[in-house]
Write a structure and sequence with these properties.
The chain is mostly helical and 440 residues long. The protein has one domain: Na+/H+ antiporter like fold (Up-down Bundle), CATH 1.20.1530. The chain is built from 17 helices and two strands. The chain has a two-stranded antiparallel ribbon. β1 and β2 form a beta hairpin. α12 packs across α15 and α13 runs antiparallel to α15. The longest helix has 32 residues.
Length: 440
């Protein structure tokens, strides 16, 4: 066993409290199921698109419906990208706010490492993409495609190869993905908004404000909140800002903690936990898999088609950004944080573990496909789909190799982290030191 980190030094990675570990474990279990469904949806789309019924798949994606007067006569694929993903981003907004109010990100010292890692994992892939595609007309619009991490896809891979991954690494991966989502939301809002219409955007503030007042007063009535949320979404969509941003704003409006009354009990879980419990299964089990099915289908065109795709600098830029840029950015940012803060890794963990996790973060799917559609237009992003799929699969395979090398160590850590000798429902390692728990 490696020597424990000095108690006088901050830990670069640690498992946190039992309450936080239990909450994160519950989230990861739900996202893992969602990740499996996402993979099923993506595989079904690819098989469908390359089958004799490929034309039927395109016809399905292009079916249009919705009220034209409200600018909502959209194709099924657009409804999935703008509508269903709004649910995904609503849950992301809830999780983001919770992390900053009551989770790891409320502590500046603990938040610094995943925030720096996430920013490194955004900046380096974008720079590599721009370097590879320099001089290619119009290619620069896709710079943000390789910057996103798909936590559901990554967890589906972990479910197969890393069931015993230590809590500290799982917590780091989830927190990094949360920050990554925040950066992706900002990128979509700032860089992929065209023909901004201020009037609908300002009008969206009215239903959003009423929604905020109601949830702050702990109103849960769906017949009040759902129409307000739909109106906010429709007005943001009409403004030219991508409609998924409305989901994030609605998530930010929901209180994380109960208000603490004078002389009353301490503040506890607020309405955000209730909404997350209700909407995360819808997001992970319906919204994201449906989006994957309607977005991932790409006609590969055999070996000639794939060869043509990989001669496209955009494809190389996206794939290299995901497979190479992500781990370089995350590892570099984390190493710099360790050097300048004099922090140590958690005991038993090494930089090989961080490398495996950084490679795993190169799995970009849901948001990468969405940004590809925004950058190049629906129907003009076929090569982007090839790049995202190939880059994500390559990252998954490389991460599998690295993390499997440490599986024996992870099993031993898992045994320590789950041991409960006194059977009080709380693992001993959260009540005493790891060394003492290991000696029991």
């Amino acid at each position: 066993m490696t020597n424990p980190a000095s108690p006088h030094k901050p830990a670069l990675l640690d498992r946190g409290s039992w309450g936080e570990a239990r909450r994160i474990g519950a989230i990861l279990r739900k996202e893992t199921v969602g990740g499996v469904l996402l993979l099923v949806g993506a595989m079904a789309a690819i098989i469908f698109a390359n089958s004799p019924w490929g034309d039927a798949y395109e016809t399905l994606r292009n079916v249009r419906f919705g009220p034209e007067a409200l600018h909502l006569n959209l194709s099924l694929a657009t409804w999935a990208a703008d509508g269903l993903l709004a649910i995904f981003f609503f849950v992301a907004g809830l999780e983001l706010k919770r992390e900053f109010v009551a989770g790891d990100l409320r502590n500046a010292r603990r938040a610094a490492v995943p925030i720096a890692a996430a920013l490194g994992g955004v900046i380096v892939p974008a720079l590599l993409y721009l370097l590879i595609t320099r001089g290619v007309e119009g290619a620069a619009r896709g710079w943000a495609i390789p910057t996103a991490t798909d936590i559901a896809f990554a967890l589906a891979v972990l479910a197969v190869i890393g069931r015993f991954l230590p809590t500290a690494l799982r917590t780091f991966l989830l927190t990094l993905a949360v920050v990554d989502d925040l950066v992706a939301i900002a990128i979509i809002a700032l860089f992929y908004t065209e023909d901004l219409s201020p009037v609908p955007l300002l009008a969206a503030l009215a239903p959003l404000a009423v929604f905020t007042v109601l949830v702050q007063r702990r109103v849960r009535s769906w017949w009040l909140l759902l129409p307000l949320a739909a109106a906010t979404w429709a007005l943001v969509h009409a403004s030219g800002v991508h409609a998924t941003v409305a989901g994030v704003l609605l998530g930010f409006a929901v209180p994380v903690l109960r208000s603490q009354k004078a002389g009353g009990p301490e503040a506890g879980p607020g309405l955000a936990e209730h909404f997350e419990h209700r909407f995360r299964p819808i997001s992970a089990g319906v919204a994201v898999p449906a989006f994957a099915f309607l977005s991932a289908g790409v006609s590969l065109g055999g070996l000639d088609g794939l060869g043509s795709a990989f001669r496209d600098p955009v494809v190389l830029g996206v794939a290299v950004g995901l497979v190479v840029g992500k781990p370089i950015g995350i590892m570099t940012a984390t190493w710099l944080m360790a050097r300048f803060t004099h922090a140590d890794l958690d005991e038993d963990l090494t930089w090989v573990d961080m490398l495996g996790l950084s490679i795993l973060a190169g799995i970009g799917f849901t948001v990468s496909l969405l940004i590809g559609e925004l950058a190049f237009g629906l129907g003009n992003d076929e090569h982007v789909k090839v790049a995202v799929l190939s880059g994500s699969v390559t990252a998954a395979l490389l991460a599998t190799v690295v993390l499997r090398l440490r599986n024996r160590v992870y099993r031993r850590i898992h045994e320590i982290e789950t041991a409960d000798v006194n059977q009080d429902g709380v693992p001993d390692v959260y009540q005493i030191g790891r060394s003492e728990a290991a000696d029991r």
